[in-house]
Amino acid sequence: MFYVKWTFLAVIAALVFSFFHYTLPQRDIVRITNTEVRRIDFGDNSIFWADPAPGTQEGVSNRDVHFIEAFRPNGKPIVYRNEDTGWGWPPYFKVDTANLQAEARDVVSTKDDPQWVIVTHYGWRNEYLSIYPNAVSVRPAEGPDQTLIPWFNIVVLSVVALIGLWVAKVVLRFKEKRIEPLIDDAGNFIENVDDRAEGFWRRLFGRGNK
């Protein structure tokens, strides 16, 4: 049971970590090199794509998706999708995909004359699953070495941690006041039943010997 318990807790912790890592905003300093629109056929990875934008047809198996291609300061490429989130999840309430695409196109630069920008996004990039992070905003960066401190994420995770500690405290207090007394009463009841049964059989066999 020890290993089962800790395996279960490890799986829960991994799921919680993955949820927040995918959902919370991340920021990259990149050099945008191209923007384009691709026709995407959705398959098993459709869960990692946003719902159709408001005003577009729903339930289709493919649609046009905006993409932003960029390079990091270390020379590694990164590709973002640019989709509206609308009122769905995650709650970014993004409805300005076309405007963001225009802003990204306006800062396209070359390796010889780089223009560094900060791309805020959520989600993951995985080549094997063909999934892309969703860009939320683009703004100029001071340079490729600018330090970005995720204050928003720190505040959110701190609040979640405090709520988690409060819930754990409430559960422990409930366990101490409600569950443990019931377990103790049940144990005492079982002991009394055993004692009575043992006394009954002793009296029964004692009479029989006489």
What do these coordinates show?
It contains three helices and five strands, in the order H-E-E-E-H-E-E-H. With 210 residues, it is α+β, with helices and mostly antiparallel strands. Helix content is 43%, strand content 22%. A five-stranded antiparallel beta sheet has the order 3-2-1-4-5. Strand 2 and strand 3 form a beta hairpin.
List its traits.
210 residues; alpha+beta; 3 helices; 5 strands; elongated
Q: Supply Rg.
A: 29 Å
Task: Describe the main β-sheet briefly.
Answer: 5 strands, antiparallel
Query: What portion of residues belong to β-strands?
Result: 15-25%
Number of H- or I-type helical stretches:
3
Structural class by SSE content:
alpha+beta
**Silhouette:** elongated
Give the low-pLDDT segments.
Answer: none
By DSSP, the count of extended strands is 5
- Assembly type of the chains comes to single chain
Distance between the termini: 50 Å
- Proportion of residues in helical segments: 40-55%
Overall mean pLDDT stands at: 86
- One letter per element, helices H and strands E, the order comes to HEEEHEEH
Strand arrangement, largest sheet?
A: 3-2-1-4-5
Write the layout of secondary structure elements.
Elements: H1 2-23, E1 26-41, E2 62-71, E3 77-82, H2 97-106, E4 116-122, E5 134-140, H3 151-209
Antiparallel strand pairs: 1-2, 1-4, 2-3, 4-5
